[in-house]
Amino acid sequence: MSRSAHPAGPRHGDVLPEGHYTPPPTDLNELDPRVWARTVTRGEDGTATVAGIPVSRLQEEFGTPAYILDEDDFRARCRAWTDAFSGADVFYAGKAFLSRAVVRWLREEGLNLDVCSGTELAVALDAGMPAERIAFHGNNKTSAEIERAVGAGVGRIVLDSYQEIVRVAHAAREAGKRQRVQIRVTVGVEAHTHEFIATAHEDQKFGLALQDGQAAEAVRRVLGLDSLELTGLHSHIGSQIFDMAGFEVSARRVVGLLRDIRDEHGVELPEIDLGGGLGIAYTSDDDPREPHEIAKALADIVTRECAAAGLTVPRLSVEPGRAIVGPTAFTLYTVGTVKELPGLRTYVSVDGGMSDNIRTALYDAEYSVALVSRVSDAEPMLTRVVGKHCESGDIVVRDAYLPSDLAPGDLIAVPATGAYCRSMANNYNHALRPPVVAVKDGAARVIVRRETEEDLLRLDVG
Ligand SMILES: Cc1ncc(COP(=O)(O)O)c(C=O)c1O
Question: Fewer C-beta within 10 Å: the chain N or C terminus?
Fold first, then answer.
């Protein structure tokens, strides 16, 4: 049974041996630039500010919990990726966080967009992303979604199954179009943070397996259909990856299939997409790579493998989501209760929880946290930051140090919550999903508003 799914009982915490925990940081008031959005700093009175705005003002104006997103940081990260990958294509993975404002920023900064549902596609189109800059993903796209994507003229549909080949070919024929497609190949690499596993098979729902010959069969089928134009192969190997070794294996295997396709069908496919999954710093212990290092490593790998296979180097694309939006936002909470369990830890309850950040409960994700409404010289105390939901696994930050004078009403913030927090937010206990507030040059504006009781009651038609 996984730790996050243990039944309610006395052992809600992990009673670990003394000395297990990393020691407290030397300065609890420091806001480590590696984990906080770029314009976050402390003002003279000790209150944290972002884009020059004190968090206390954000709390007064927008309430808590709230996601605060640094627009300049988002744009700067977009530019860092497009600069690093000049001559290649960067597709922002919309699943990390998508809104109309985000689409506009992406469009202005020259990025492409990866969507994986009809509704993500709707947001992208509504906010004016040119259809040819959109890639459509997903392991079970409905016929209606496919028709919509083909009709809109998306630049790329990434095929994920034999059935989908037929559906997309049919939709394109009906629309009188030739749809550009890639095939998602499952390469037998599972990568996460500093580890990766290379196997012959991969037991997962996405893509068509390379080792079983399914990917090669998919290529055969697609090449036989006039309404589809096969432009390349796609592979995505994991998430929160720091180590490039997994990409090395995946690129070698994908290029091997490109070579087989050339040998069998006499065609050299012009594109290869190595997916997303690049890691970010959630805590000060994380040390992610910069986009230019990643770009160089991937280009070197692909160039080397293509040279070995005697292939022209295809146009490369990547799909970072977390690495662009993750570090640009933090979640602002108000402390509600502080409950000391002598000899164990102190539970700090905030006004949100697993409804606005499910990642800790779902993946045992690690986060850090800081007191942001003031500085404190009090001794550090070991805390667990928890939400207000009726679930003992409702944990936001599993183990973190906060000052021991922390009190109800203080504002605390969890950095690096830009990715997979608002996009995975839910209404457990009829929680109202928090707003996303974009800040820039001393101004703050809501880009996704807070849900209201009326929103929820309107869905509940009795
Ligand atoms: C196909 C594909 N591309 C890109 C991504 C984005 O991953 P990340 O946000 O970790 O970069 C994902 C995430 O699941 C994915 O499945």
Answer: C
